[in-house]
Design a protein that fits this description.
heterodimer; A: about 120 residues; mainly beta; four-stranded antiparallel beta sheet; about 0% helix; about 55% strand; B: about 120 residues
């Protein structure tokens, strides 16, 4: 069975400092992993995806994530936080054991950026 | 290219009433998904259409929920009668093709969601 754990429900950082949002997963198959972001009153936007190619994935807005199979992790990082990064972030695992990409969402991490 | 659009953005109804949510997927996307996030809980899968057919409706909570996708284009999700615990945000997503095993060709694009409040 697939599952996703986001270890922090809320993270607060100062503007200009690094961001680390943690994600661990369990999967019976070789997973695809995604990070989505939701800004207030907006839809879920795809930040980046891992699909069994390079383990270090670069996404939009300066975010990147590294797939570590041995640690079953897919943490999201950014070197320098910007005020516009304040949003809720979801780690998602995709199940390839079915005929389509059924996705499982993590519980979300709310990121606050302090001026 | 227009994204996934959902109507209404917010709906407030009384317990026992009926509400219909609509989702217009990205043009040409055969796959359409409904998800829901109840307050304080995780985003949960409800069901999946391939064109007009229900591929997987294992996440539908009960028979008060009815989803349709007429002609394989837009989809509606009707809740009848609505209960207090149905309150939450309902997301729709669409994707273009079924994936090959091990390769996620099927990236899901999400709408802004409909916030449903049942009073």
């Amino acid at each position: 069975a697939q599952s996703v754990t986001q270890l922090d429900s809320h993270v607060s950082v100062s503007e200009g400092t690094p961001v680390l949002l943690r994600c661990n997963y369990s999967s019976s198959y070789s997973p695809s992993l995604f990070w989505y972001v939701q800004h207030p009153n907006k839809g879920l936007q795809l930040l980046l995806k891992y699909t069994s190619a390079a383990t270090l994935v670069k996404g939009i807005n300066g975010f990147e994530a590294e797939f570590k199979k041995s640690e079953t992790s897919f943490h999201l990082t950014k070197p320098s936080a910007h005020m516009s990064d304040a949003a809720e972030y979801f780690c998602v695992v995709s199940d390839h054991g079915t005929s389509y990409d059924k996705v499982i969402f993590g519980p979300g991490t709310s990121l606050s950026v302090i001026p | 290219e227009a994204g996934v659009t959902q109507f209404p953005s917010h709906s407030v109804i009384e317990k026992g009433q009926t509400v219909t949510l609509r989702c217009d997927p990205i043009s040409g996307h055969d796959n359409l998904y409904w998800y829901r996030r109840v307050m304080g809980k995780e985003i949960k899968f409800l069901l999946h259409f391939v064109k007009e057919s229900k591929q997987d409706e294992s996440g539908m909570p009960n028979n008060r929920f009815l989803a349709e996708r007429t002609g394989g284009t837009y989809s509606t999700l009707k809740v009848q009668p609505a209960e207090l615990e149905d309150s939450g945000v309902y997301f729709c997503a669409s994707s273009s093709t079924a994936s090959a095993r091990g390769i996620a060709k099927n990236i899901q694009y999400f709408g802004a969601g409909t916030r449903l409040s049942v009073l």
